[in-house]
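Here is the promised in-class demo. Please do not try to memorize the tokens; focus on the logic of going from shape to residues.
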């Protein structure tokens, strides 16, 4: 919001128009559509959970690839979110993507902040309520601006984390190959 002052102004306007200076309760939250869109868009750009892992329950086909039963599949959430095939201008902060009139443009399975399918986050609604109440309290009282100490990019940390995960994955593959060979011997 600091890097996107116009979005911050839209958000503050929504609070002013819909809440009229009163602290929201849970029922008020459903009227704060732009707030919801800002949260979803922030988590699209910087998903708190950057990787999800699943195991195939049966043999299946992913594009042209046949995936055997029991294969471990890693889903790089941030990469999916920043893929231009999934989101137009994927590195730009555009909360409008998540407004109700645009939701149908989001392809199923391309927004994974809370994962998807039967094992998605059970705490999603609770987490969203908490975030919304907290952000309403902040933006009803303050405007946020950049200062010399503001850190706007976490890409370096993300790079280190990705590197760490890559090494971890390589070790996993190495040891599973080793155990397969050992079983055959
Ligand atoms: C912004 C906050 C949160 C985010 C981004 C988030 C994201 C996620 C994601 C991506 C998963 C799937 C992980 C995977 O399958 O590998 C997950 C699972 C889960 N989350 Fe959250 N979560 C949040 C908050 C919460 C809260 C507040 C609770 C509890 C009150 C919660 C409880 C759970 C549980 C129990 C699962 C496992 C569900 C299952 O395996 O069936 N989460 N969450």
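The designed amino acids, position by position:
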């Amino acid at each position: 919001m600091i890097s996107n002052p116009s979005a911050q102004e839209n958000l503050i306007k929504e609070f002013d128009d819909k809440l009229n200076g009163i602290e929201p309760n849970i029922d008020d939250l459903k009227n704060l559509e732009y707030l919801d869109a800002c949260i979803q868009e922030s988590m699209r750009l910087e998903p708190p959970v950057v990787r999800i892992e699943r195991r195939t329950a049966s043999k299946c086909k992913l594009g042209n690839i046949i995936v055997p039963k029991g294969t471990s599949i890693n889903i790089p959430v941030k990469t999916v979110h920043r893929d231009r095939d999934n989101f137009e201008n994927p590195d730009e902060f555009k909360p409008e993507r998540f407004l109700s009139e645009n939701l149908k443009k989001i392809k199923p399975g391309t927004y994974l902040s809370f994962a998807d399918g039967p094992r998605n986050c059970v705490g999603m609604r609770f987490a969203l309520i908490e975030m919304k109440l907290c952000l309403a309290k902040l933006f009803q009282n303050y405007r946020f601006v950049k200062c010399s100490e503001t850190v706007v990019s976490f890409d370096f940390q993300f790079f280190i984390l990705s590197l760490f995960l890559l090494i971890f994955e390589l070790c996993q593959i190495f040891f599973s190959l080793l155990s397969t060979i050992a079983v055959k011997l």
